[in-house]
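Now read this:
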Amino acid sequence: WANTELVYPAAAKDAGKYGKVTVTFKLESDGSVSDISVKESPDDVLSSEVLRVTGKSPKWYKSVYQHVMVDGPGYVEYSVGFMLKTQDASGKIVTLGSDNDADIVVIAYN
């Protein structure tokens, strides 16, 4: 879902900004997302886009988290990493870190 919503910011692409943006949020008992914050990011423009997309998240389904059913009152805290990549002048994809470090990978092509 997030890959279809996230738009690589033109200002970040033009400036060659890329890397991992990690956000944390609460998953409420009704499946909604709240209290979204940036845990780490290489750039404010990238952070803003990831916050925008995370805030538009559809409701999550109840599930098992660490062998406990996520159900009833309360919330669960999550941390999700978005890896944002771009291309250099030669067309080579550049990144900071590894895709293994992220949950969602987005590439801006020239």
Observations:
- The radius of gyration is 15 Å.
